[in-house]
Amino acid sequence: MKKVSYAAFGGPDVLDLMDAEEPHAGPGRIRISVRAAGVNPVDWRLREGQVLGAHPVELPAGVGLDAAGVVDEVGEGVTDVAVGDRVFGEGADTYAEFAVLSAWAPMPEGLSFAEAAGYPSVVETALRIIDEVGVRPGQKLLVSGASGGVGSAVLQIARERGVPVIGTASAANQDYLRELGALATTYGDGWVERVRRLGPVDAALDLAGSGVLPDLVALTGDPAKVVTIADLGAPEFGVRFSGVAGSVPDALAEAASLIARGRLHIPVEKAYALTEAAAAHADSQAGHTRGRRVIVI
Asked: Is residue 102 within 8 Å of 247, Cβ to Cβ?
């Protein structure tokens, strides 16, 4: 089979599309014929050699956590799916023609494989950090870097929970944030004052890692009210770095429910072929994403 991997840490150019042995589903796992894989910031952070405790890397390494596809092998003890079922979920080395998933759920009706592949890690992360930051209905949440996949999910889940949101993004993505129910403003010079004009902030999430943690602490008045998924320097400011996943099966179930009720939609901004994995990483690192980037196989 074809699989994207890397033998050394570095930039997007270290990614290589290679022939590899097919993986197989062990106990409690399933294998899918991958139709699409989600492109997540964690993918290129690991490729760069960033030390993320929840995702140890042994070289050579495959790439990708999220995927959607068709079940073609069921491991011992798995009883909730059968060969031929369409599923989305999380596993390992998903930039490949076949991948093993450790968590999965039936694909919601009406979603394409490309759309479904964009949800697993994104929704799990959004649910986790909303809970960790402790924001309650009626309190105002600030989301820095709100237009990407996690931000898109956070805005919609917060809206569903009765939490008003201020979102920062590029000028081109202001209308997109408003469509998701957020009060929108741009980042860059003067952004803190622009946020203050939109009202007091009770809690904040940093999704972009652009050096804003001191400002988020100042806006909330308490480092305990700030959570980041992107700035490894968080402890310096007393801020929590959230990098360990919670229950992915629970997140997939909630995602499926929200999607079915029309309460969650994350658009696919761009799809890439397996041969374009390096371009997908370069674009993801450049930011300014509106929704999700995926690899279609």
From this structure: no
β-pair partners for 5: 16, 62
Q: Which of 46, 48, 39 has its CA nearest to residue 11?
A: 48
What distances in angstroms separate CA 221 from CA 99, 158, 203, 204, one per listed residue? 45, 21, 9, 10
Average model confidence (pLDDT) for the chain?
Answer: 95
Q: What stretches of the chain adopt beta strand conformation (E)? A: 2-6, 16-19, 30-39, 61-62, 66-74, 86-92, 98-106, 141-144, 165-169, 183-186, 203-206, 226-228, 240-241, 268-272, 292-296
Whether the model pTM is above 0.90: yes
Angle at the Cα of 71 (from 54 to 5), degrees rounded to 5?
A: 45
Mean pLDDT of 93-100: 98
Q: Which residues contact 70 (CB under 8 A, 6 or more apart)?
A: 32, 33, 35, 84, 85, 86, 87
User: Over the stretch 157-190, which tens digit does the pLDDT of each residue have?
Assistant: 999 999 999 999 999 999 999 999 999 999 999 9
